[in-house]
Structure formats: structure tokens, C-alpha cells
Write a structure and sequence with these properties.
It contains 17 helices and two strands. It is mainly alpha-helical. It folds into two domains: 3-380, Ammonium transporter fold; 395-425, no CATH class. The chain has a two-stranded antiparallel sheet with strand order 1-2. It starts with a helix and ends with a helix. Mean pLDDT is 92; it is low at 400-426.
């Protein structure tokens, strides 16, 4: 047991947990004000439901010995997960750290279906999804499953987190359907500073996400820290230049998106590549995500916050480029294409393809099953009014009539209180 490693992993776990509220701000700023709270709640609720499921069953299915395809139930209810060593840190800390990954992966999906999916259906879907989809893929890559044995490289979750969530988001957007005013109204971000704040906090937390995946305070953690700093910088430069050439106006939303794309892309590679390779990887990753986002805008696909372009495409590109830029001299694990091992690129493609196929099919099945229990999307009246008041009885901002609108959706507010609210507004 190492005190230094334990200290670093305590900090990293807190940093990654912070990423889910950061995601809430990133997503919340991109939607219309009438849906801001509902959008943010879709991230925050994962902290509860997914967190409990992780401790009770998903951790065991992910990291229990099991088979090549799924862990066993030896850690069910955290049985046998205590203060004993897991490497050089306490087992219970390792469990908590990995749980923060599961929590944010589920929350990522919400960006594709905000402003129209019913909250109850969403909560049931992500609860089932982490058991049926996340756990097996995490086991394949990190739990000693068949992709680990094949030699797939995924330092901090390119395949397990971003490819997995990206394809699930695509399926969810298709199954739930488009917003009622998609293509007929301006669906503009209501608070771009929120989105910038969220991007900044995500970058901060991502140092725990990537550097923490070394599971020790060592040289590999330092390498992952450096690549996590530099790759988004490369993405941001290329994205800004693309914006400047295309429309002569680099945008704040584009800046925030570029940072996230760079972070997503470097995640699978963080501890396997050198700093200059990280800049190149981030720069390359900007191009397919940028044009993927533009292509999506011309289609009928209503991926509300472009989860597919940022996480699906960015994660896929990053996972494949890991097979290009990996250096055994740095990580002691494997070389990539540029360093004499072209087979690694093929292995990375198998890992990506496996995650895409399994997550896509099973996400579709789960959404159809949830649809048998709950209506997947809000009705037209609720969608038009906004999901904050119709589903939660709250509003993000108090404005003319705001307090009255909130009171009118509460079942426990007395008539005198309602009258006082009306007089205050008057």
C-alpha cells in the first residue's frame, strides 16, 4: 500500500466525480431556458441511481473474475471490497474511482435526447443500461475480458466510455424521435457562459479521469497529465481555424466543443503516447468531429447537443489513433503503427467495432423495453411549455410570471401563498 498513490487516487476520484456536475453545466447552457433544469437534472440524477447500482451489482459484473465476456457476482453488494490492497491502493478506493466513470458515461447519453424525453423513462433506461451495456464492455477492456486479452489499448475510457455512450446516444435520438419544433424554430443555447464554465470544469476533472487511470502517483500519471493538457490545445487551435475559414467568426460554443472533443480523443491514448503525439492526435481529431457536426445539422437526426459528433466520433478517432501513436518506449505496453506495429491499429478497430455493435443493439432493445413501461417522450403540450415546469414544477430563472408558473405546478402551495405571489408580480 502506498500513501502517495492513495492520496493521488483520492484526489482523482473527487475530480472525476466533479465531471458529472460539470457536464450538467455544459449541457444545461446549450438548451433553451425552459429546459435548463431538466437537462441538468439528467446528469445529476446519474449520481444517485447509477451510483447505487454501481456499488450493489455493476462493479461486480465489471471487475469480478467471471468469464471473457462478463464478470461474476463475487463482489455483489461490495462483498469482499474493503481496505485490502488493490495494487497499491485500497480496494474500496479503486471501486469508488471506477464508479465515477460509470456515472458520467450514463449521463453523457442524455445530451442526445434533452428537451423531449420523459424523465422517468430516462432514469429507468440509464439504470438498465449500466447493468446490461456498460458492465460487459468495461469487463471486456478493463476486467480481464476478451478485448484485454486481445491487447486492446484503452487507457481511460475511449471505448468503454465515449464510443459506448456515443452509439447509445445515437440510438436513443433515433428511437425517441425529433423535437416537435426541430427545423422549424431556432433552438439556440440560452446561456453560453454556463457551457464555457462546464467545459473548463470538465478539463479540470479530466486530469483525474486520465492521469488517475495510472492508478498511482508515478511517471505514467505525469505522462497522461501532459497529454491531457496538450491534446485539447491542439484540437482548439484547429477548430478555431476551421471556424475562422468557414464563417470568419470563431464562436464560444465552438471553443467549448473543441475542448471536449480533444479530451475525448486523448482519453484512450493518454498514458500510451508522447506529448507531441498528443498535440497531433488532438489536431487530427478536430476535423472529423467538426465536419460530422456540420453534416448532422443538415440531416433529420436530432442529436440535440451533438453527443455523436463529440463523443462517438471523437472517441472512435482517439481509439484508432491510439493504435497509431502508442510508444512502448514510454508505456512499456505496445507500439503503434508509427513505431513499427501496424497490427495494433487492427486490434483497436476490433475493440471499437465490438463496442459499437453491442452497445447499439442492446441500447435499442432496452429503449423498446422501457417504452413498454413508460412513454418515452413528453407530450406536445409539455414539450411546448418546457420540461422544467411540466416535469419538475420548477424554473431555472425567475422572470415575469416565473414565480407564478412555478407555484401553479406545485400541489402543496396554499391559496394565500399563491395570492401573495400574484400581488408581488403585480
Amino acid at each position: 500500500m502506498s500513501a502517495a498513490d492513495t492520496s493521488w487516487m483520492l484526489i482523482s476520484t473527487a475530480l472525476v466525480l466533479l465531471m458529472t456536475p460539470a457536464l450538467a453545466f455544459f449541457y444545461g447552457g446549450l438548451v433553451r431556458s425552459k429546459n435548463a433544469l431538466n437537462t441538468m437534472m439528467m446528469s445529476f440524477i446519474s449520481l444517485g441511481f447509477v451510483g447505487v447500482l454501481w456499488a450493489t451489482v455493476v462493479y461486480s459484473l465489471s471487475f469480478g473474475t467471471g468469464s471473457d465476456y462478463l464478470g461474476d457476482l463475487s463482489f455483489l453488494g461490495l462483498n469482499g471490497v474493503g481496505l485490502e490492497e488493490k495494487g497499491t491502493i485500497p480496494h474500496i478506493l479503486f471501486m469508488c474511482y471506477q464508479g465515477t466513470f460509470c456515472i458520467i458515461t450514463a449521463a453523457l447519453i442524455s445530451g442526445a435526447i434533452v428537451e423531449r424525453m420523459r424523465f422517468s423513462a430516462y432514469v429507468l433506461f440509464i439504470s438498465l443500461w449500466v447493468v446490461v451495456v456498460y458492465a460487459p464492455i468495461a469487463h471486456w477492456v478493463w476486467g480481464g475480458g476478451f478485448l484485454a486479452k486481445l491487447g486492446a489499448l484503452d487507457f481511460a475510457g475511449g471505448t468503454v466510455v465515449h464510443v459506448n455512450a456515443g452509439v447509445a446516444a445515437l440510438v436513443a435520438a433515433l428511437v425517441v424521435g425529433r423535437r416537435r419544433d426541430f427545423k422549424s424554430a431556432a433552438l439556440l443555447p440560452h446561456n453560453v457562459p454556463f457551457t464555457l464554465l462546464g467545459a473548463g470544469l470538465l478539463w479540470f476533472g479530466w486530469f483525474g479521469f486520465n492521469a488517475g487511470s495510472a492508478l498511482a502517483a508515478n511517471g505514467i500519471a505525469s505522462l497522461a497529465f501532459a497529454t491531457t493538457m496538450l491534446a485539447p490545445a491542439g484540437t482548439l487551435v484547429v477548430w478555431t481555424l476551421l471556424d475562422a475559414v468557414r464563417q470568419s467568426k470563431p464562436t464560444a460554443v465552438g471553443c467549448a466543443t473543441a475542448i471536449v472533443v480533444g479530451l475525448v480523443a486523448v482519453t484512450p491514448a493518454a498514458g500510451f503516447i508522447g506529448p507531441m503525439s498528443a498535440i497531433a492526435l488532438g489536431a487530427i481529431a478536430a476535423v472529423p468531429s467538426y465536419f460530422g457536426l456540420l453534416w448532422r445539422a443538415r440531416t433529420q437526426l436530432d442529436d440535440s447537443l451533438d453527443v455523436v459528433a463529440a463523443h462517438g466520433v471523437g472517441g472512435t478517432v482517439g481509439a484508432l489513433l491510439t493504435g497509431v501513436f502508442a510508444q512502448k518506449g514510454l508505456n512499456g505496453v505496445a507500439d503503434g503503427l508509427l513505431f513499427g506495429n501496424p497490427a495494433q491499429l487492427g486490434i483497436q478497430a476490433v475493440a471499437v467495432g465490438s463496442a459499437l455493435l453491442y452497445s447499439g443493439v442492446m441500447s435499442f432493445v432496452l429503449l423498446k423495453m422501457v417504452g413498454l413501461v413508460f412513454t418515452l417522450r413528453a407530450d406536445d403540450a409539455s414539450e411546448s411549455e418546457g420540461l422544467d415546469t411540466s416535469l419538475h414544477g420548477e424554473e431555472a430563472y425567475v422572470h415575469a410570471g416565473g414565480s407564478v408558473a412555478m407555484l401553479s405546478h406545485s400541489t402543496d402551495v396554499s391559496a394565500p401563498a399563491r395570492e401573495l405571489a400574484f400581488r408581488t408580480q403585480g
